[in-house]
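pasting for ref
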Amino acid sequence: MSAGISAFLITLNEADRLPRTLEALAWADEIVVVDSGSTDGTTEIAKAAGARVEHRDFDGYGPQKVFAEGLCTHDWLLNVDADEVVTPELAEEIRLAAGEPGAWRVRILNVYPGDARPRPWANDYNVVRLYHRSVGGYRDHKLFDRVEHSGAARQLTSPIWHFPLTSWAHFVEKENWYSSYAAEAGQARSRTGLIWRLPFEMPLSFLKFFVLRRHFTGGWKGFMFSLTAAFARTLRLSKMLARAEDAEKK
């Protein structure tokens, strides 16, 4: 029998996608939700699903997740975003993996708006999401929320399905907000370096998404996803450049 597992999420106005996420976590021994002020019924949905819900004003992704870790009562921790779904196959793998303390990587596969599953041969992200608190935890960084752990992380085979977008318009709105947040929360960069980087950011980012992450298998949706993501990277760079110029004027 595996050890107890605490699944934790951070939320803000996720009522439309959260029910599916929580349903896929029903097997977990505990679900902890840290909400930063939802007004759409997110917290009520979480409580109805049996989750422990706590409020914390948002001051960065890392700090929110560090706070959530501290609320969990089990030593095995699983972090899931409110727009992600743990597949049944992954849930079984997690139960079997939660034995000797360690860290496990999970593949995160994006699902396009209107689709029910990831594109063929998807290759998006592969990050540590399951870990024992004795070997690691989230670092307290406002932007780059990743698990720092001792020892080599092992790999789980089955994926998490990620539903990041409710529509293509939502994609643009989301990336505009995130690019602004990332430009402010990230480390200040040299104005000269940003200027040299700017012309190459969009074409290279497009190739990264379209070819390396295999969005070319997603048809027109894959093309639009890659194009929008590349534009968002370029937009973030331009906002970083504006920040650098403002700093020079002071």
